[in-house]
Amino acid sequence: MSNQGYDEELRSERQYVASLYGRLDTERVRVSEAYAGALRGEGFALSDREVSVGAKAREMARLKVADEGLCFGRLDALSGERSYVGRIGLFDEENDYEPLVLDWRAPASRAFYCATGASPEGMARRRQFRTLGREVLDFTDEVFGRPGTAGERGDVALLAAVNAPRGEGMRDIVATIQAEQDEIIRLDHPGVVVVEGGPGTGKTAVALHRVAYLLYTKRERMERRGVLVVGPSSGFLDHIGRVLPSLGETSAVFATPGDLVAGLRAEREDPPAVQRIKGSLAILDVLAAAVADRQELPAEPESIELDDVTVPLDAGIAAAAREVARESGLLHNEAKAVFERTVIAALAVRAVDRIGAGWLPEDDRHTRPEMLEHARRDLEASEELGAVLDRLWPSLTPQRLLADLYASPERLQAAGADPALFREDADAWTVSDVPLLDEAVELLGRDRTAERRAEERRRLARKEYAERVLEIVEVEDDHDDYEFALRPTDVLMAEELADRFAERDERDLAERAAADREWTYGHVVVDEAQELSEMDWRVLMRRCPSRSFTVVGDLAQRRSPSGARSWDAMLSRYVADRWVYRKLTVNYRTPSEIMAVAASLLASFAPDVVPPESVRSCGIRPWARRLSEVDIEDAVAEFVREEAGREGTSVVIGPPGVPGAIAPSATKGLEYDAVLVVEPERILAEGPSGEAELYVALTRATQRLGVLYSGVLPKVLRGLDSGRRTPDAYLHCV
Ligand SMILES: Nc1ncnc2c1ncn2[C@@H]1O[C@H](COP(=O)(O)OP(=O)(O)OP(=O)(O)O)[C@@H](O)[C@H]1O
């Protein structure tokens, strides 16, 4: 295309995109008016009004996400048809609802991401816009079907996106999703999809866009049940937290494996050996035995004093009652009533036998039943007996079961548990206790106390609901671009609506799901899934009986001793062979200069794993410097100072004891423009997963990597530039 031709095209594209924003603005005014009208109840029967308000509020949110980057490209079919692709779909109401711009998730948008020279999918051209705010800055074209265009996409927009300095949190990638990623995002598989790929291959990004896609295509089911996204740490969840809202989706609940039991937030970690024990399915036998061990027999007969007689509760009576209770098939807490009833019945017989000894015939049909009934009532009322029964068959919460077990070497031994599970602060819960607590609910039965607490939380939530409605109204009022302001009468309506919603349990999805242990999700995303233990998987499978999962991870980055060694070993128990596996191979984060260093480390501990190929190089060699320990401290401070003056993000990663450094595990799934790794040989020496930890640390950088060490540089890092670092070394990639 000549320069003049390009300029004319650019002008026309700018006009078109400007007209789309015009359409968007009109639409927003229309919807906001309809929203206010629905709040006032215009044109609706009262019963339909809240449905309408909800729908309008959702539509307003949908239109809001397209404030910037509404349209990012155009697709020209061989047939001559043109489609614009963007963040949301808009239609021309005056022209038979012709699409003006297609939602990126619509089937017709697929070719925008997938067409290549080799497989053009009936397309002649893909045009990608570079935009700033509402403006199209320029565009690039890929023309299919010409000689020499059959290779990979020459993607200027992609390179601009991956080169851009990182800000706070992850961004969505709708404008530049790559073909191998798109295939996974749209994969129509109802069961478990495992996505594996090296660091930076976009696993997290793909999983989140798949959620947005599923919410678009299966909206009803997904919105009602919600989607659970499980990630390794709260820092990671903060990092990814904005992606779905930027795509207009809010029906996701985010949790770490330590948050999966309601009312608990476990962050501590057990020592590796203990993690391994608690993560293995063999712990199920220990838990079952620990529960059985709480169904005790009296060592000595307990004397129960009634008004007329004293009866002994001995091991024989307790054993027979225990048998009956166990055979009832009920869970421990529910079977307690059976145990108690059976003991009381036996003691009543014993009491009547004693009182009637010598004068009451065994076959008496009149006095004996009356006396039995009398004795039963006395026994039921006996506090002394109640205390004994509570000791023999206590009502247990999961927390009490586990804390009592951990605190007692005797109980551990009786349950066949490893003595390593003993701990002094028995109820200082760790992340690996969470699946055990969850499992304990299955063994003990429902915990009525937690249910009562949840009901109280619900009541408070209802109370706050009306206030929240008012807040929303105020926020919308602040919006100066559009006429969202509501009149006082609308506010009154909003309050009335709040009351009505309260009756129908309108807590937001996250709250409802968190308060209800039996909540099941429409879909579950598991990130850094290689870290999850066999026991973690049991919890997640319970949360999603439909087994609709997107599981993303990288076995080579596994750090947890109880994590996955193979996907099949973790999954086949639940879904047999009905899970599919996809691989991502291109690294969008780490430039090739840094990836080369990480790849030589990878080859040393996982020689069979092919490292991902970087999508770009940046011309800056990662470096290493040897310094004394004292000088390292100064160099770290200097790094922090220098980076603070640059655009983008940075981090210092090191073993415990390095001032200002965080552990590699805390950076899992995260990324920074500049990374300084300190004392890598000590990271390597940190336990059996040292290599994976260092691999994670080296692959966090999007631009610059430096290494400081005081002892020996690990052999695998010898390729690093050891020359004096020049200021140029800190330039951005270009
Ligand atoms: N198609 C794309 N267009 C633009 N950026 C992309 C694309 N795919 C991935 N990225 C970017 O690459 C970076 C790495 O992505 P992501 O964190 O999803 O990788 P990952 O495979 O989960 O990495 P890790 O295993 O190290 O956690 C992110 O900044 C992401 O936005």
From TrEMBL:
Organism: Amycolatopsis japonica
Keyword Cytoplasm in record: no
Gene Ontology terms: cellular component: cytosol
PANTHER family, per database record: DNA 3'-5' HELICASE (PTHR11070:SF45), UVRD / RECB / PCRA DNA HELICASE FAMILY MEMBER (PTHR11070)
Domain of life (superkingdom): Bacteria
Annotated protein name in UniProt: UvrD-like helicase ATP-binding domain-containing protein
One Pfam family recorded for the sequence: UvrD-helicase
SUPFAM superfamilies: P-loop containing nucleoside triphosphate hydrolases (SSF52540)
A Gene Ontology molecular function term of the record: ATP binding
Protein residues bound to ATP: G197, G198, P199, G200, T201, G202, K203, T204
InterPro entries referenced in this protein's UniProt entry, alphabetically: DNA_helicase_UvrD/REP (IPR000212), HelD-like_actinomycetes (IPR048227), P-loop_NTPase (IPR027417), UvrD-like_ATP-bd (IPR014016)
Record key words, sorted: ATP-binding, Helicase, Hydrolase, Nucleotide-binding
One of the GO biological process terms: recombinational repair
Domain UvrD-like helicase ATP-binding residues, every copy: 176-591
